[in-house]
Automatic annotation (TrEMBL):
One Pfam family matching this protein: SDH_C
Oxidoreductase among keywords: yes
Pathway: Metabolic intermediate biosynthesis; chorismate biosynthesis; chorismate from D-erythrose 4-phosphate and phosphoenolpyruvate: step 4/7
Enzyme class: oxidoreductase
Keywords of the record: Amino-acid biosynthesis, Aromatic amino acid biosynthesis, NADP, Oxidoreductase
Positions annotated to bind shikimate: 15-17, 63, 88, 103, 215, 244
Statement: the UniProt record of this protein carries the keyword DNA-binding: no
Membership in a protein family: Belongs to the shikimate dehydrogenase family.
Gene: aroE
Protein name: Shikimate dehydrogenase (NADP(+))
Role according to the record: Involved in the biosynthesis of the chorismate, which leads to the biosynthesis of aromatic amino acids. Catalyzes the reversible NADPH linked reduction of 3-dehydroshikimate (DHSA) to yield shikimate (SA).
Organism: Agaribacter flavus
Domain Shikimate dehydrogenase substrate binding N-terminal: 7-89
């Protein structure tokens, strides 16, 4: 049987999700057709309806800018999606669409794979959209000491914190002018536009780890800026992408793929571009 899934995003041309899932499927000798879909923002619901109506479809992944629409679309939410307030994975179950969020799992796994110390860390999370929503509960569960949220629109940052203000012992606040961070995470898509967040350079110290959820075939604009400002450890989001994809694959097939060989292949392919 040929199973099907896709990734919804706009833009989505740069997505490596089809390659990743095809590599995962090979590990288990599964026939899996994974495609890309890029509807206009107002057409997301109709596009999702049409795709998910196919009986061979197991689900879909959702990326920028559809994660919050996806949250409203589904019939049921997983605990991860409920806490995040955003959905990045659809899973079909008995004619119902379950919304899940694997972003946080992928992020934490990649940070740990890169030997980033999370317990007790002071974190600056840039952005308050779907990606940040997925990351925040996972950071709290990883026992970071504090998370400061920076967003261009302060009200959105406050809204993000509102639902999680009593979730665990982590101190949560909107960023003001703090400078002592252990980890800075860019959860915006600014790097896809070759832009950087409007933050002061003094936050990027030598001991700070800077992580960009965006990945490209070269260091992103955020990571280049952070390095120029003094940051020594700069990590892009390729490992997070593969990690969250592995969790989505597990939700669809009940099988957890090996991430490492896929990440190595993908990195080589990107560097060759």
């Amino acid at each position: 049987m040929l199973y099907k899934a896709c990734v919804f995003g706009n833009p989505v041309s740069q997505s490596k999700s089809p390659f990743i899932h095809e590599e995962f499927a090979k590990q288990f000798d599964i026939k899996f057709a994974y495609s890309k879909a890029s509807p206009e923002i107002e057409a997301f619901t109709s596009a999702a309806n049409e795709f998910l109506a196919d009986p061979d479809v197991l689900g879909a992944n959702i990326t920028v800018p559809f994660k919050e629409q996806a949250y409203q679309y589904v019939d049921e939410l997983s605990p991860h999606a409920q806490r995040a307030g955003a959905v990045n994975t659809f899973v079909k179950r008995d004619e119902r669409i379950i919304g899940d969020n694997t972003d946080g799992i992928g992020l934490i796994q990649d940070l740990l794979r890169n030997k980033v110390k999370l317990k007790g860390a002071r974190v600056l999370l840039i952005g308050a959209g779907g990606a940040a929503k997925g990351a925040l509960p996972a950071l709290i569960d990883a026992q970071v000491a504090s998370v400061h949220i920076y967003n261009r629109t302060v009200e959105r940052a406050r809204d993000l914190l509102l639902n999680l203000s009593e979730d665990g012992d982590c101190q949560l606040s909107v960023y003001e002018d703090e400078e002592n961070f252990d980890l800075i995470i860019n959860a915006t898509s600014l790097s896809l536009q070759e832009k950087v967040p409007s933050l002061p350079d003094f936050i990027y110290g030598e001991s700070v780890v800077c992580y960009d959820m965006v990945y490209l075939n070269k260091p992103t604009s955020f990571l280049r800026h952070a390095k120029k400002a003094g940051c020594k450890v700069c990590i892009d989001g390729l490992g997070m992408l593969v990690g969250q994809a592995a969790q989505s694959f597990y939700l669809w097939f009940g099988k957890m793929p090996d991430v490492e060989p896929v990440l190595v292949k993908l990195r080589k392919a990107l560097q060759a571009q």
